[in-house]
Amino acid sequence: SVVTKQQMLDTAVSDINDLFLYEASTEGTGNYTAFTPNRDGGMNDDIQANPQTANRIRGLGSANTAIGNFASNPKIPLDLYNIDAVEISRGPNSNIFGLGSGSGTVNLVPSSANVRNRSLTLSGRADSTGGVRGSVDLNYPLIHDMLAVRIAAVTDNKRFEREPSYDDTERLFGALTYKPFKKTTLRVSAENYHREAQRPNYLTPQETITEWKSYGEPVWD
């Protein structure tokens, strides 16, 4: 499945979980839960710890992630500010990216500099919980039909009903396109990613004193 940038803008997609709400055989945090027991008899909320990998394709496992057909760190979230499309390959078809998986692969098609047209895009978003997001995307041909540069940046400050939870992200992306000959194109890109977060815990508190007393109130150093 190929999801265009315009489709993601129309559905207000902000991460992979929003994207999976509208695709076949995919599950994100909107319809997926993941809890694992810990050594103390309690439970860990895997979605709270890492929502980017809390998903499933074909009901089997989390999606592999690639950028421009190269394997990437799945913990770095998808963001619209520097991608043009998303390709979802399910099952054995994901092998074409060199990331064999029984579930599938999500390949991000990164933005590239355009050597012909100038463009500037500014966008902003706010929500009812106090979250604020702003982004800028500038494309500028330095030499028409030969050399162009593209710079994009985003700051995304998410807030939640449970205070003082937060999720703050700053990203900066740069791309260069060079066409020395008619049938030769060289592209270079780089990105800086910084995130600080303390996401809310969706598990209810667990009472363990009764169980401890039933074992005779054991103590150890």
Mean pLDDT: 86
Order of helices and strands: EHHEEEHEEEEEEEEEEH
Largest sheet: 5 strands, mixed
- Number of contiguous helices: 4
Spatially, the strands of the biggest sheet line up as: 1-8-9-6-7
Low-confidence segments, given as residue ranges, are none
The 3D shape can be described as elongated
Give the termini distance in whole angstroms: 56 Å
Give me the Rg, rounded: 22 Å
Strand content: 35-45%
Q: What helical percentage do the residues reach?
A: under 10%
What structural category do the secondary elements indicate?
mainly beta
How many DSSP-defined strands?
14
Layout: helices, strands, pairs:
Blueprint: E1 2-4, H1 5-10, H2 16-20, E2 26-27, E3 35-37, E4 43-45, H3 46-49, E5 56-57, E6 64-67, E7 70-71, E8 83-90, E9 104-110, E10 119-126, E11 132-143, E12 147-159, E13 166-181, E14 184-198, H4 209-214
Parallel strand pairs: 6-9
Antiparallel strand pairs: 1-8, 2-5, 3-4, 6-7, 8-9, 10-11, 11-12, 12-13, 13-14
Please explain how this structure is put together.
By secondary structure, the protein is mainly beta. The chain is built from four helices and 14 strands. The strands form four sheets. The protein has a five-stranded mixed β-sheet. The protein has a five-stranded antiparallel β-sheet with strand order 10-11-12-13-14, with no helix packed on it. It has a two-stranded antiparallel sheet with strand order 2-5. A hairpin with a 2-residue loop joins β13 and β14. The longest helix has 6 residues. The protein is elongated and about 80 Å long. The chain starts with a strand and ends in a 7-residue tail after the last helix. The relative contact order is 0.13.
